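This entry is retained here.
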Amino acid sequence: MEQPLPRGVGLTALSVADARARESARLDRLFDDPFAQLFVDAAGAEFAPPSTANAIDIRAARAEYVAIRTRFFDDELRAACAAGCRQVVVLAAGLDTRAFRLEWPVGTRLFELDVAEVQAFKERVLADHCATPTCERRVVVADLREDWPATLRAAGFAPAHPTAWLAEGILMYLAEPERDALLDAIGACSAPASRLALEPPVWQVSAEMSEKIARGVVDRAELARVAAAVMPQVPPPRDPSIADPRAWLVRHGWQAHIYDVAERFHAYGRATPMMFSPAAANMPARRLATATRL
């Protein structure tokens, strides 16, 4: 019996897999994720975008950004482990395969947290292809809006040990109080010298909107409705996680460094797409962040 596809925000895990598969197929790829295309293939026709005459295909543009984001976080997790972290926690892990495609120091334990339907789809595909992790991997079924720290500790997580945390592609789907609660929970589980890598939000996206654009081919009228729903939040609102992510992280007990995505394109030898350029009109700056627990 086939595993049903994730719904809502969970469906975006497949859009990221599609982006990583596209990057992995490039000769000048910034990373290689041999599992990404397996997830897309397993989703099959159910995930295929609708065919319409009046649609915009955003998959190639999305892949350009996801490539930069993925490489940035790969490098940061490697750096955290080089600094001594032997626990890695990937929050809202989706179809992340860093436990399989990266080389980890001996003794590294990596936890992947996500909701049941995402984990079930992912585990079926990995099992079908006999995937073998390169570290000790623990799959944790948990919702970040609930008491996930208790579930994480029950899976063997040790709060007294420095931890490398990753929050990639999730904060934009949480409301401001949920972002604060998540950061408080991470901080309560973080020993000194723990590291955090995250993607600060530039707006809030609803689960309904996320599912509409996850397949990557969007009707022009639908895309306009999505844009109208989020663009009034530009310039940034008073939500500090959007307006000033560095100050937001400092307030929660982290020493933070913020990176501009346009600068990361240049650092990795890629041309900056117009939508990520500082010259792009009415578009907020996209950023990535790293932080160390004080």
User: Anything to note?
Assistant: The domain at 8-293 is CATH 3.40.50.150 (Rossmann fold). The beta strands are 55-57, 87-91, 109-114, 136-141, 163-167, 195-198, 217-219, 254-260, 287-293.
